[in-house]
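HUMAN: You are asked to prepare a plain-text protein record giving the amino acid sequence and the C-alpha cells, both parts labelled.

ASSISTANT:
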Amino acid sequence: MQASYYDILGVSPQAEDIVIRAAYRALAQRYHPDKSSEPKEEAANRMRAIQEAYQVLSDPVSRIAYDASLLSLENTQPYFPSTQPHSIANLEANAWEILLRLHPELGSNLSKLETKQMYLAKTYRSLLLELISEKLVANLVQSIVEEIKDIQAESRLEQSRKTDLQ
C-alpha cells in the first residue's frame, strides 16, 4: 500500500496548515538532492513525493478531495458519492470548490469537524451551500426585477415619444 500524503510529510490528518508547511520545509531541506547523503536519484524521488504531498495538502480544495478519496479507500461511503457530470453530488462538489477558493478557511473548519463528527461536517457543508445558493437566487431575482423595471421605463419612454410625434 502506498503511503498517504500525511505519512510522507509526517503529520496527522488533523494538522493545521502551518504544521504542514513547517514539515514540508524541514523535509525539503533534509532530502533535497543537493544536500542529501542519499544517492541523487533516490533523493530526487523522495523530494518529488514530498513536493506532491505538500502541493495537495497545502491547497484546501485539493486536501478535501484527497481526504474524501482516503475515506472511500477505507470502504466507507465516499464524501462525494457520484462523479457523473450532472449529478447533484458533482454539482455540489463544484460549488464547494468555488466556495473554498473564495473562503479557504471553510475547508480547515470542515476538516476539523470531519475528524470529530462526519455527520456534523456534512450538515455544515450542506447548510453553507444552501445559504450560498439562496443568496445567489435572491441576487438573481433582484437583478431580474431591476432589468424588468429598466425595460418598463424604456417602454414608457418609447411610448411617450410615439405620442409626442403624433
The radius of gyration is 25 Å.
